[in-house]
Amino acid sequence: MNLRLAAIRAMIPDGRGVVDVGTDHGYLPVMLRKDGYSGKLYASDIRPGPLSAARRHAAREEADGIEFLLCDGLEACPPEEVDVIVVAGMGGDTICGILDRAEWCLSPNYLLLLQPMTKAEILRYWLLNNGFAIEEERLVCEGRTLYQIIQARFCGVNRVVPDAWLYTGLPDRAGDRELFRRHMLEQRNRLGRVAEGMQSTARQENDRLPYIRALCAEMDEMMGENT
């Protein structure tokens, strides 16, 4: 079983409808239909190949009633037919672009489940500065990889958080404390390596070095508080 997709599925309540953006093979919509989800199901992808693969997978699994949308992000999704938006397996900056081009998602009527593969800090910054509340964060361990799942909903109020939280996730929204501490350590070590690289002779004047060092110090303090 794909633990990452199973965790996303577990966060989806039964409701009006779900759109899975960048559906690839359509695993999530098929999982939802087979689990008895009663609402509308949309699987979208920007590429014809993955969308065809999703159709074939749905046919093999006899998962009826899934609508397949060949489009960029949410462009072809009918807003009135869904109440859950899933964007998983992309870079955080790409997810921001998808949401930014769909102004209709700036509404408390939609639950967002977002799983960035990279640049989660950019996604969190965008959400918190565009009126979204991060309601929950889940970490899923699959093999040696930790996946971050962000649950958000528009509330119209921006929130300012320490910069380190943009990288680690919001401690006050985290679930599994052991996985959260492991994730903090991974982010701290990654940024530490970035700082070491910046200290090389060729890049020692890099103006981001003090900022990265400050982030590392914030994370050290966070880990001390979570010991």
Largest sheet: 7 strands, mixed
* Structure class: alpha/beta
Strand arrangement in the largest pleated sheet? 3-2-1-4-5-7-6
Shape, please?
elongated
What is the share of helical residues?
40-55%
- Average pLDDT reading: 93
Stretches where pLDDT is under 50 for at least 5 consecutive residues are: none
Element order: H for helix, E for strand: HEHEHEEHEHEEHHH
In angstroms, what separates the terminal alpha carbons?
32 Å
Strand content: 15-25%
Total of helices: 8
> Would you count the extended β strands for me?
7
Gyration radius, to the nearest Å?
19 Å
Provide structural commentary.
The protein has 227 residues and is an alpha/beta fold. It contains eight helices and seven strands. It has helices at residues 3-10, 27-34, 48-60, 92-100, 120-128, 163-168, 177-198, 209-225; strands at residues 17-21, 40-45, 66-70, 84-91, 111-118, 132-142, 145-154. A seven-stranded mixed beta sheet has the order 3-2-1-4-5-7-6, sandwiched between helices. Strand 2, helix 3 (48-60) and strand 3 form a beta-alpha-beta unit. It is elongated, with a radius of gyration of 19 Å. The model has no long low-confidence stretch (mean pLDDT 93).
